[in-house]
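S.,

Sequence below, as promised.
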Amino acid sequence: MINNNHENIIRGFRRRRIRWTTVTLLLVGITLLLAGLMLVLGNIYYSPNIVIKVLLGEQIKGATFAIETLRLPRMLSGLLVGVAFGMAGNTFQTMLRNPLASPDIIGVTSGSSVAAVFCILILKISGNIVSAIAVVSGLLVAGLIYALSKGGSFSGGRLILIGIGIQAMLNAVISFLLLRANQYDVPAALRWLSGSLNGIQMKNIPGLFLIVIVFGLLIIMLGKNLKILELGEQSATTLGLKTDQTRLLLVMCSVFLIAFATSVTGPVSFVAFLAGPIAVKLVGTGNSNVIPAGLVGAILVLCADLLGQFAFDIKFPVGIITGILGAPYLLYLLIRMNKKGGAA
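The prediction came back faster than expected:
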């Protein structure tokens, strides 16, 4: 009887591992396909053969400028930002055991947004200085939310409520700044707030790449600890996990990803909110879904940007498309939680 149970456990583990590997490889394939489409599609279609030649350094009139200067930075930023939002959102949702615990729901992205809008509208500055200030502001707001939620002991529910309250306050500040600003400056701020890949340059990519690699790898390495935290505070402590230190490290890694991604493209709505739940549905439970969530985030951003560019007569920023996709899910989730009496 014991041997049969042991064999069933092993078979179940292997099935989950095979499913995780298969789905992850499929997500990688879809991501690469969308990235390729970002390079070949545009006002002028360039064949994959021409794209490869340009990427290998060959100079082709018209194609080199379009691909290297316009399309490649756009694709890379969408890919990296999607991974960052996906990983960070999944980490918050898993750690706090609540699908509403997404950085763009609990105020982390608003911390970066209010600083960027203030720089654009009041200080009249732009470029890398805005990005740097947005990063610092996002980190400070996230630290404030975490500190206020600590109290006597950490509470995920308290963090979410405090975050939602701070987000509402920061959004009110943004609205006030937009109303008081010079009407000629408002469009620039609105473009940033909508979340857009327009105007991304290659100089923005190395820093974002480094942040995603360093903090993304840290989150992946902490994947097992993240799954233990999902069991709850008491169970995690019983299993010997240093919950406060682990949680603080995960929060820091996630906030750095969110802050830097937001500083480059603006707050791309609902990617962090959607990526984790979709990844869980695809790969199932039992394994860390940090990598699948990052890939789903990249797919959402790249797919939304392609739709925004080519599916309509008017070109829409990527954040508008992801907002349209995410809003119905948020309503559905709130209705479902209400029927369950607040249980996630």
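The chain has a mean pLDDT of 82.

Coffee later?
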